[in-house]
Amino acid sequence: MSTVIAAAVTDTGKVREHNEDSYLLDTETQIFIVCDGMGGHAAGEVASSMAVQITKQSWTAPSMKMRMEAYADRGDADSRRALIQAVRQGVMSAHLEIIDQAKLDEDKAGMGTTFTGFLIAGGDAIFAHAGDSRAYLVRDDIAMQLSEDHTLIARLQASGIDPTTGGAATARWKGVLTNALGIGDATRVATFIVSMYSGDKILLCSDGVTEYLNESEIGQVLVSAPSPARAAQRLVDTALDRGGADNATALVVKVVEAGETRIPAEQRERDEAAISQCPLFALLSPQERLRALRITTTRELKQSKPLVPIALGNRVSYVVLSGEVELAEGTVGVGSVIYPEALVEGTDAPARSKTAQASTPVRLLTIRQDDFFELAEEDSDLGVKLYAAVAKLMAT
Length: 396
What we know:
It contains 12 helices and 19 strands. By secondary structure, it is of the alpha+beta class.
């Protein structure tokens, strides 16, 4: 297991009468959650508390523990898929229960909550996210937002529209969520995996913090604060000093020692550098790339071994992480995509004479066709970008 220390601070703020934020900090089970509730008659408090408690029950169930242990021990495609599905299902259980409770009590009609949380398996953090509470990672003194805001403003920005140019016309849409627990049947729980390094710091926080601190300031606080407790307190105090118009919650986790994984830290860094060169992921934001990579697994082949177009019971595509691969058209290297047509339904597998072969020992990222289709269906915005990249690859 990884060794972590953590602390959390929450405050009602200077305007709100109730604190509708809820959080879970459990270093024993290594589960961390922040939720920001919404709804009249203090129903937001109910929704956020339900999300925390129901998800905790699911994430601490014996079946989940078995999946976590299997993932930490094997780290293969099947154990990864099973764990991610269980993580998502735990949050979806909370979503469905919130909807049911709202139907039973008219005072709670329309209640809902954001959700941002993760659990640790081996040396990896498995995240689940819905709404505009955020997760940040600080590594090597650099902060990066891991989650994406599920808001109308964020969708406008992703479409190339600058919402700041509309003045009051767009300001009224600020804070409008496009996704949250308890709101609509089509709630989407985004999941992704982050490999942890010793010294990493992870922040989960409600928008009462991010409304007043930008990414750079968050990084500065987490780097300079002597402890997670001091960091969390400083983030909330700063939000209050700058207005405090909303509930503010900050939960900070410091990775004292990352648990063992099947991939050494040095190899992970080389893999990440190779992935950044891959045209399949060129159109993706860092957050989208994290979501896409959760369906991938790595494998290694010796020199002269074929890259079989069908593996893991399915057609597959490969991304070259290291080494060189011989194709009919010539030799390709790091970042290249092999068999991109495997990611399109109805295409034919390559003939035996056109099967790629390892020119040197190679390390590969493997993407199963079924997993790719499932990802594109459940995360349509991401799917559009991935299919555009595949089309471009097939056209060249």
